[in-house]
Every structure is written in C-alpha cells, then in structure tokens.
Amino acid sequence: MERIIFPENFLWGAATAAYQIEGAYNEDGKGENIWDRFSHIPGNVWNNENGDVACDHYHRYEEDIKLLKELGVDTYRFSISWARIFPEGKGTPNQRGIGFYKRLCEKLLENGIMPAVTLYHWDLPQKLQDKGGWANRETVEHFEQYARYVFKELGDKVPVWITHNEPWVVSFTGHWEGRHAPGIRDFSTALQVSHHLLLSHGKAVKAYREMGFGGKIGITLNMNPVYAASYRLEDMEAAKRFNAFHNRWFADPIFKGEYPEELIKWYEGKVKIPDIMPDDLKTISQPIDFLGINNYFSSFIKYDAKSWPLEALSVDTGKDKTEMGWEINPEGIYDLLMYLHKEYKGIKILITENGAAFNDIVNREGKVEDDNRLDYLYRHLKQVHRAISDGVNVEGYYVWSLMDNFEWARGYSKRFGLIYVDYKTQRRILKKSALWYKDVIKNNGF
Ligand code: BGC
C-alpha cells in the first residue's frame, strides 16, 4: 500500500471546548453562561441534558493530560470559559478561574504538549446576554477586555490563539434557527451578531499584537465545500449564494476587508443589513497568522423558492452518513482546501476540527472497536495530505474530539471522541481509532 507521510513539522492534535467537557458549572466563582441558562430550560437539549458535570474535566484534567501524552499529540486545542474568569462578563477577574487555566497550560507544557487556546467557544456570560449579548455592540468591548486579560495572564504559555470558534454557528444556529443558546430566532439579529463577532475578533488580534506577544493568532471558521446539486443555472446560482452565506461572509471581511457584495444585494429588502461603522472592516481585516477550519461535511445545494431568505436548500445525495446525519464526503475536505488556497492566496491553514460521531459500544472485552470513525479519519487525512501535496499550506490537524462530550443541543447522545467516556463512572477508554491515531502521530503518517 502507498505510504502517506506528512511534512516534517506537521502538528498533530486533538480538540475540546470548555462547556462540552469541564463540568463544575458553578464552582470556584464561575458565573452563569448562556449554555448553563439554555440547557437548564426543559425542551432545549436532547433528554434535557446539560454541561453541569460533563466529563468532569475541571477536576480530572491531570488524568486527561496523561491520556493526551499517551496519544503522543504535539498540541491540544481547548477553550476558556469566559464566565470562569469574568463571572459577569466584565469587571474584576476571578483568580480561581484563571488559576485553573494556568495549571492546565503548565501541565501541558511539562508534558511537551503545545496549548492552542480558543477564547470563545459559544459560552457567553449570561449577564452580557441580559444586555443583548452579541447583538449589542458593547459586548465587543467586553470581549476585547477579556482577551487582553487572558493574553496578559497566559500569553507566555500559549503560542497559538484562536479568537472565535465558528462565528457562523454562533450567529445563525444561535440567533436564527434558535437551536443553540441564546435561542433567538431572527435573521437580521443573526447578521448583526455576525458583524459584532468579526469585529471583536479584529479587536482581539489588534490587542494581541499591541501587547507584543510573538505567538500566532487566528480564527476558526466552520467551512464546507459547496457544490451545485445540478448544472441547472438556478441551482448553480443558489450554490454560489450559499457559499457566500456560509463561507465567504466570514472569510471575505477577514482576508479582503469586505462583505460579499452580491449577498448584501440579495439581502436588500429581505432582511436588515447590519450596522457597520466606518473603520470596522479595517479592524476586522487585521492580518492573521492562520485560518482555522472545522470541516465535517459538504453542502450540495439546489434552488428552492420556499427557503427564505436564501432560496437555497441542502440536498441529500445518498452517501453514507455519520450519527449526526451528516453525509461522508472525504474529497470535500480536499476541494475545500484547494478553494481556500486559491481564493485567499495561499493562506496558512490549521484544521482545527474534523471527526465523526458514531454509535459506539463497549464490547464484551471492554473495548470500543470504532472502525467507522477510524475509516472516516483515515479517508479525510488522505485528502488533507493530497491537498498538501498540491501546494496548500496546511500546518496541522486536530481531531474533534479528544473525548466524548456534551454535544450541544444533542446532549450526550452523540459521541465524537477518540476516547470513550462512561458518564456514570467517568471512566475513559481509548477507542480503536485513538490507538490508530497514536500510530499515525508516531509515524507522521500511515
Ligand atoms: C463545534 C464543536 C461540536 C462539533 C460537532 C463544531 O461545530 O465546534 O463544538 O461539538 O462541531 O458538532
């Protein structure tokens, strides 16, 4: 079989997020965040589950770092809970909150694992939501202050920073579909939120540079390659529109300093165009060191007059699906990487999430034989390697996720981990995919 070897300094990692794994939701002075509030309201999350305990990582982080060490990862991506540090979103920092992340970073470094830290993975302090949350421009300032404080405290320990995780999901799943916290259902609000998220990203990048740190900073976007479902003109136009909505709405302001013109035109008369102040796009387009991309699936789009406001609809193409109902299309990640390389002129890319949920079982030998996940990772990594061979600057890859965890509105019903978590006992079991990934890391390929 042909050998697939990655570039020498390629970074191998695994990723998590604070609310999904930490638990300890009201300990050591942590404030309430929008996911605490949202998940405590019956009907919002599958089986009315919540992140109160999750993987109890807050108390078990040392054990979890041992597992990271066993996997042999170069880097671990995790996020910081804003409300642990500023229980009310602003004001006086909570020493016990920042203390946890200091210990976590120190332990990682002691074990030779590079921390890659996301500042915002969806858990806004509830007190800021009470004042309008991301729809209120003041939240941008609070985010900047929070970022400055975290940079000051952890800047010497963390070489890689990610300002936001998936602002598309925050905007549209949280403020249009209402399936995620804060559960708002208004397209115009979602658009305004998207602008404030981007602006807060730009302000944090600027602050990081001003403070003189030498590490790298970027943002993570959830991106899908977009294909037209047919060669009919209306389907091809709908696919273009969907690409502008899903991918370019966030990447163009950052890399080109402008929102996609044709989408703004399309929105006119349908939804309210966000309020944008004169220097905003300049701030948003601060140079960044890498683009983080999360990719799970591809979008096949057809024209649909009833799909307001885009008149574009995702269709099923009959491919195999993961437990999330997401079609598996490994070539998609290759097409996406090639597209980004071309569209944004050779930017540096970190794949900050890729992975799959499957219905894992612990077998009679106490093992989890997740060949389906292993196969998913194998096929996607092969395509990532192909893109690198074709000139795309991919610097690293993080599996989502290090361990099974709270899958947002789906609660604990979906397992994405390399490591199985028995939520009753908090026992962790390395799945077959984890053992395979360990070898991939060791051999820098397969
Ligand atoms: C998010 C993760 C999430 C994963 C699987 C991404 O959208 O960043 O928090 O668990 O996808 O749904």
Features:
single chain; 446 residues; alpha/beta; TIM Barrel; 3-stranded mixed β-sheet; 13 strands
Q: Tell me the overall shape.
A: globular
First-last Cα distance? 10 Å
Structural class: alpha/beta
Q: What's the rounded overall pLDDT mean?
A: 98
Count of strand segments: 13
Largest sheet: 8 strands, parallel, barrel
Write the layout of secondary structure elements.
Layout: E1 11-15, H1 18-21, H2 34-39, H3 57-71, E2 75-79, H4 82-85, H5 95-110, E3 114-120, H6 126-129, H7 138-154, E4 160-165, H8 167-175, H9 187-210, E5 216-222, E6 226-228, H10 233-256, H11 261-267, H12 280-284, E7 290-294, E8 299-303, E9 312-314, H13 331-343, E10 348-353, H14 371-389, E11 393-400, E12 419-422, E13 427-430, H15 432-443
Parallel strand pairs: 1-2, 1-11, 2-3, 3-4, 4-5, 5-7, 6-8, 7-10, 10-11
Antiparallel strand pairs: 8-9, 12-13
Helix pairs in contact: 3-5, 7-9, 8-9, 13-14, 14-15
The structure holds beta-D-glucopyranose (BGC).
The site of beta-D-glucopyranose (BGC) has 11 residues, from loops.
Describe the structure.
This protein has 446 residues and is an alpha/beta fold. The chain has one domain: Glycosidases (TIM Barrel, Alpha-Beta Barrel). Helices cover 40% and strands 15% of the residues. It contains 15 helices and 13 strands. It has an eight-stranded parallel beta barrel with strand order 1-2-3-4-5-7-10-11, surrounded by five helices. Strands 6-8-9 form a three-stranded mixed beta sheet, covered by helices on one side. The protein has a two-stranded antiparallel sheet with strand order 12-13. α14 links the parallel β10 and β11. It binds beta-D-glucopyranose. Beta-D-glucopyranose binds next to loops.
